[in-house]
Amino acid sequence: MSLQQFISQAISPWMKKDGPNADIVLSSRVRLARNIKHVPFPILASAEDLAALTEQIGSEYGGAGHSRYGTIEFLKMSGMKQNEKRVLVEKHLISPALSDESKAGAVLLSEDESLSIMVNEEDHIRIQCLLAGFQLTEALRLANEVDDWMEDKLDFAFDEKRGYLTSCPTNVGTGLRASVMMHLPALVITRQMNRILPAINQLGLVVRGIYGEGSEAQGNLFQISNQITLGKSEEDIVQDLQSVVLQLIQQERAARKTLMEQSKLQMEDRVFRSYGILANSRIIESKEATKRLSDLRLGIDMGLIKDVEGNILNELMILTQPGFLQQYAGEILSPEQRDQRRARLIRDRLKMENEQIDH
To answer: Is 126 within any annotated ligand binding site?
Structure first.
């Protein structure tokens, strides 16, 4: 699979699959941080050390076959244009840090894009497994399989007392970051999120926006992940996160039920206003688009809108990002040009849904 194929499709193949509780939990992710023994960590390594490691990883795993993931593609950051890297960030296949501070960075990608292995980001290796819906336990199992697969040829830095050694002390131990992407519009509308967020932080979890650390929670999408990696087993970390996510799912469902029972007319008005704006706007900024798309997805999940598929939020949240808009245009666009193209793309996508229903 070529770079152009990875960046030309907004929806990764794994995102098209159904998963448990997918109306609220859009995706589950497990990431393992690893470093190579006797090689300086990326924050201290020379450019020569990092380049040599990249070549080694590319030689060992680029084009390799995996029993679950098929052929693994190896892509160097140095061989990409800035906007191509931006598209991979928007698809959550690489981090902004790998894109902006490549240091001989690279990525190994599976054909369905559910496996992404970053090379020379903050750590030498970052294994990321993504699944649709609420599937943290399965994501952990798959990540551990890939970890074992790589450890057959690589000697990871490990200490008997501290566990896996990482560049950042907060990752030492298991090196595990487990996270879920949740759509929680009803809790936001009913103003419960302001009370819930501090409670989540007190449980040793962290809540971020759609693109992780430092990003804003747009479109009522929240990434919830563990903070503690040392002193707990991988299974315990995932179990703690799962318990909190299950509570959030129950609270979001209860809030949606309350809105339908007590404010149905207002909800219908909100949802169909957003639908109308998305279907007819000629100019729309990114922040408004994500807000309206969130309303549309809520309307679909609550049964108010029946002729649009739920995956449209996942798809258009990526398709309408600056990188994708410019990739499709084949040129760098001004903010105003992006707003025009975003509006047209959303109109065309919704029109396509209506045409499929008519036929």
So the answer is: yes
